[in-house]
Amino acid sequence: MKIAILGGTGVFGRGLALRWSKFHEVIIGSRDKKRAEEFANNYSRVAKKYYGNEMKGEIIGHDNLSATEASEVVVLSIPHERLIGFIRSLKPFITIDKIIISPVVPFDKDEKCYKYVPFTISDPQNPSSIIQVSAAEVISLELGSRRIVSTFHTMPARKLCNLGLKLDCDALIASNDVEAVKIVSELISQIPNLRPVYAGSLEVSRLLESLTPLLMNLSLCHKNIKEPSIKIV
Ligand SMILES: NC(=O)c1ccc[n+]([C@@H]2O[C@H](COP(=O)([O-])OP(=O)(O)OC[C@H]3O[C@@H](n4cnc5c(N)ncnc54)[C@H](OP(=O)(O)O)[C@@H]3O)[C@@H](O)[C@H]2O)c1
């Protein structure tokens, strides 16, 4: 499968690229093609060293738009502050067949704690009123696509990057598209000891995204809780 990781030069993109390149063609996207190629070469060296002959896929670099065009699955691994402008620039390249994965978590921190800060937009049903929506819902509204799968919010990038680490956690999923959930669940299952767990429609993404600041607050309160993740038992 061809998977584009846009903003794949960040730590979260690195983790996914290292994990999925064992089986898939991963395209690292960046605003700067040369930077994407440099990061892809670096990730590729790490992955080949770890997987050896078991590595069936590869990692290459491209600008974000070419990476999107070339892929079946597109991961939006970019900061929440840039999300709306970014997806608007992407829209002409998102055909209806592409699956979009959103790990995006809109959050903020004040002097006391981390907070979930959903997007504030005018209500598409009633433009004179303002509503709050998750990152995944913003993506869906902007792109007009049903194939949005919201997941990975509680998966710390550093754990994904550590190929020798046994993850033993869950990736909760929110989406309105049954077929896309099936495909993304298979991709998640290919990451050893990471279990996909469907949590409901895209609206549920608000709850999933808000788990990340909760986990970050746990780390703030407890020195011995580092890079916490979620497992449903
Ligand atoms: N880090 C984690 O542990 C973690 C865990 C779960 C979910 N997430 C989510 O995953 C996403 C990526 O996280 P990250 O920590 O990897 O983020 P990051 O390092 O802050 O950013 C990722 C990449 O986004 C690109 N970028 C930055 N500003 C941009 C802009 N204005 N327009 C377009 N691209 C821009 C950059 O790539 P170029 O400069 O190469 O274009 C950057 O390398 C976030 O939405 C985060 O909420 C992160």
Structure, explained:
There is one protein chain. By secondary structure, the chain is α/β, with parallel strands linked by helices. The protein has one domain (2-221): 3-Layer(aba) Sandwich (Rossmann fold). Helices cover 37% and strands 26% of the residues. The chain is built from eight helices and twelve strands. Strands 3-2-1-4-5-10-11-12 form an eight-stranded mixed sheet, sandwiched between helices. Helix 1 (11-20) links the parallel strand 1 (2-6) and strand 2. Helix 1 (11-20) crosses helix 2 (33-51) and helix 4 runs parallel beside helix 5. The longest helix is centred in the N-terminal third of the chain and has 19 residues, at 33-51. The mean pLDDT is 97. The structure holds NADP nicotinamide-adenine-dinucleotide phosphate.
- Lateral strand order in the biggest sheet: 3-2-1-4-5-10-11-12
What is the annotated CATH architecture?
3-Layer(aba) Sandwich
CATH topology: Rossmann fold
- Note the main sheet: 8 strands, mixed
Structural class: alpha/beta
In N-to-C order, the SSE pattern is EHEHEHEHEEEEEHEHEHEH
- Per CATH, the class reads Alpha Beta
List each distinct ligand once: NADP nicotinamide-adenine-dinucleotide phosphate
Sheet-strand content, in percent, reads 25-35%
* Full CATH superfamily name: NAD(P)-binding Rossmann-like Domain
Radius of gyration: 17 Å
List low-pLDDT spans: none
Q: What is the number of independent domains? A: 1
Average of pLDDT: 97
Overall body shape: globular
* Discrete helix count: 8
Give the terminus-to-terminus CA distance: 31 Å
